[in-house]
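Morning. Coffee machine broken again, so started the prediction first thing and wrote up yesterday's gels while waiting. Chain of 225 residues, entered below exactly as on the submission form.
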Amino acid sequence: MPKNYAEISHAIVAALGGTGNIEAVTHCMTRLRFVVKDKARIDTPALKAIDGVLGVVHSGEQCQVIIGNEVAKAYQAVLALGMPGAAAPAPPVKRQLTLKGIGAGILDALVGTMSPLIPAIIGGSMVKLLAMILDMAGVFEKGSSTLVILNVIGDGAFFFLPVMVAASAALKFKTNMSLAIAIAGVLVHPNFIDLMAKAAQGQAVEFAFIPVTAVKYTYTVIRRW
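Came back before lunch.
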């Protein structure tokens, strides 16, 4: 059932202390980001209880209301309320550097980068599971081209995981996606993989007189040295 974002936005603004307590509002991929004047006027339990609100995060002078993929609709409904400063981007918030803040930033970067990859990883896993079941059930002979193709489809998301992580990270950190993919693509290039295989067998491999350590990057997100 479609959500009534006019009602949801009205309830959100009311729980934030009304339009008079809001200096500006903007949004990211899943959250409405409000800059408020007085955090004490925010009714956090009421915010979390609103149907359509998935969560609430307080960060500095910002109150971030998690809406989900339809955040743009909620944002337009908030703008329709005509609150002051709604059309302007939220001013940058100066944050004090703390261990908790650093940890939260690292966690946000990891979650923001890996979350978009979950559907592809789950899809690949399901295809590989299907291939395994068909193999165990004897529906196809071992080494059958059908099983090979199914395994290739299932392996796609894992084999090119470095490239997918690079693209997702480029979106998260607002950098050039083509450049990120090009850099990650080097790591899964067949010639580079062959060189790493030779290095693993003890053959000397170097780049500009610098020894290259044998590392396999396919199927990898973080490599431990």
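Residues 5 and 74 are 5 Å apart (CA to CA). Going to sketch it on the whiteboard this afternoon.
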